[in-house]
Specification:
This protein is of the alpha/beta class. It folds into 2 domains: 163 residues, Rossmann fold (3-Layer(aba) Sandwich); 138 residues, Rossmann fold (3-Layer(aba) Sandwich). It is 29% helix and 26% strand. The chain contains 8 helices and 14 strands. The chain has a 7-stranded mixed β-sheet, with helices on both faces. The chain has a 5-stranded parallel β-sheet with strand order 1-4-5-6-7, sandwiched between helices. Strands 2-3 form a two-stranded antiparallel sheet. The longest helix has 17 residues. The radius of gyration is 20 Å and the shape is globular. The structure holds ribose-5-phosphate.
Length: 312
Amino acid sequence: MQLSSDKVKLFAGTANPVLAGAIARTLGLPLGALSVGRFPDGEVKVRLEESVRGDDVYVVQSTCPPVDSHLMELLTLVDALRRSSAGRINAVIPYFGYARQDKQVTGREPITAKLVANLLESAGVDRVITVDLHARQVQGFFDVPVDQLSALRTMSGYLRQTAAPNTVVVSPDTGRGSEARRLADMLGLPLALLYKRRHSDTETEVTAVIGDVAFQRVLLVDDVISTGGTLRRAVEALLENGAVPDIRICATHAVLAGDARQYLSHDAIKEVIVTDTIPLRPGDPYTVLSIAPLIASAIYHVHTHQSVSSLF
Ligand code: R5P
């Protein structure tokens, strides 16, 4: 899957240099030279240190915390590429922040996911490659192609090797039900759903368990662990409903805001499996599966004009 560096370049923002390096190695491409710094007042300052004239460029940048700063860095990088006459500019955003506000829930609110799509397009992005968007409809907020990859195959490969008997796949809310269904089908396991009510950004409540979890081991699957509140409540509800205290969690994006690490340290949670769309802290006790081969395949397929649907 090697690309010749003739007319294709890969650049990395500062959000996830390890992942960008792994993608570069898989594709046999060097990372493009650029400098990212700050003006004395804190504004971001980027400069491309090599020509990109006429090149197809892929810029890897997760818009993970600090979200505003990583997003602004991505926007300025894209602007620099456009003003330097790059050919096509592909934003590779393994974790797409600000996808949460995809509609007005109450009045007088922004739709931030649409705003971010507008900003990226105005800056000059010709294509977005991303992984497990929080809400699929964010894809439609763009007028340029958005290739939304799924980490489920990466997850299922690992889970198949480490499967335990009497396991049920559980979605912690109905919103992720179809993704959980896909994972359950891949693993040949039954599915259960929790009905979640969200009271605030940090407070959720499980009001119903749909499906059979009693005397079962559980594989809880979600797109993102933000505060960890959703998964903590899910674990508590599952235990109250008779699940075996042998619960594994798998989630694509480890945002791990606030008290998330504390929430995940529960006796019944035996393993937390995440991907490297967002860098973890050294010493975090989680299983990290790399998404680099998946993203490298997507870049390879896009660049060589081959179908990417098989990667979704
Ligand atoms: C549902 O809204 C999502 O799939 C996640 O469950 C949610 O965003 C996780 O957020 P938190 O970890 O803050 O509960």
